Amino acid sequence: MPLIVKDHTWTQNQNTVYISVPLKGVKPASVHVICTDEYLKVSFPPFLFEVFLFGSINEERSEARIGNGVAVFTLQKRRDESWEQLFTNIDKDKQKQIREQAVLKVQQKEAEKSKAKAARIQQEKKYALETMMKLENKERDRIQKMKDEECARATAELDFWRETQRKTAEEKENQQKTRGTGPQDNQPVNQKTVTLMRNTGDTTSGQRSRKQTAKDLPAPRSAGCIQISFTPRVFPTALRESRVPEEEEWLKKQAEARRAVDTDLAELDDLREDERNPDWLKEKGDKLFMSGNYQAAVNAYNLAIKLNRKIPALFSNRAACHLKLRNLHKAIEDSSQALELLKPAVAANASARLKAHVRRGTAFCELELYVEGLQDYQAALEIDPHNAALRADSDKICEIIQGTT
């Protein structure tokens, strides 16, 4: 049986009720609160505080502050009035019904939050995919433009050469016409004489030379067929837009296959036994980053991730290196992976989540995706609302977005 807390205090005015509940030395993380329009429950085992409110409150506008050994609730009344007491006297059946409705309402809210979170993650992935597609199309157009320019240049050079050849031939023909017709009139006679002499005197020798030439020629090559075999893909390629889940599953399998191939790399064999430690490799990567050797830091983090893929700091720090090296898409991917490993969001990992959001937001802004970058900066501000530098950067991004719309 839980221990009922009775040493609570409460005050009120015309539109607000203040309730203070001592936590009996329990940590704030162990406190669970359920609040509806007519019911408030504070559970921190083995203690329990439960109240069926005298009047109705506005749950959306009410708030709770838990810390320093006390939970303080500020409840906004729906009507401006003074309550005669905090509790209302109702029978057990009515109390049971109110409890069940409160639990059901809390479950529905949690389900809605989970659904909204999943939709936001899917939207972020879609943004990243669209960004990659835009960059690929831009690069493809650039290459095609280079090909077209090179083809046009080659065609112009060929036309110029043909025109030069034509002018040269015309000049030679004009020179021959200006020389006169005297010697040319006798040329056909001389040609006929030479032809007759060749036909009458060298008939036999010509036939012999043709036969000898025919014997020296090699036989024609025989026809053949070259067999070509292509290496089949391990996984089928899915469509980009209409079947996004299949594509993500395929990419995941490809990554797993690559990791399976890379497990026996010579890089790990070259390390000493004490160096095959992700924490040691992380410290080495941090020192290399501080010294400005970003590519070497990336290599150290890569080896650490191959040994242990469950450390969020490895992905977050590698994202920082990629930002320095201008590998912006890799920075977005590593920051997203770090945020996935930092779930659930608790106070202990707030600093790490803030860094990952800022790094991913910076990468988005460098790619001129300011809306996505603003989302990450706003998420960082929710973690640290009093950070003046973050707020200033967020305001600058807002100004850029408003200037481009």
Structure description:
The protein is α+β, with helices and mostly antiparallel strands. The protein is 61% helix and 12% strand. The strands form 2 sheets. A 4-stranded mixed β-sheet has the order 1-6-5-4, covered by helices on one side. Helix 6 packs parallel to helix 8.
Please outline what is shown here.
The chain is built from 12 helices and 8 strands.
- Mean pLDDT, rounded to whole units? 81
Report the sheet with the most strands, covering strand number, pairing sense and barrel closure.
Answer: 4 strands, mixed
Structure classification = alpha+beta
Number of strands: 8
Q: How are strands sequenced across the largest beta sheet?
A: 1-6-5-4
Share in helix: 55-70%
Instruction: Report the portion of residues in β strands.
Output: 5-15%
Q: What overall form do the CA principal axes indicate? A: elongated
Distance between the termini: 61 Å
Helix count from the secondary structure assignment:
12
| Helix-strand sequence | EEEEEEEEHHHHHHHHHHHH
- The stretches of 5 or more residues where confidence is low (pLDDT under 50) are 181-202
Radius of gyration, CA atoms, in whole angstroms: 41 Å
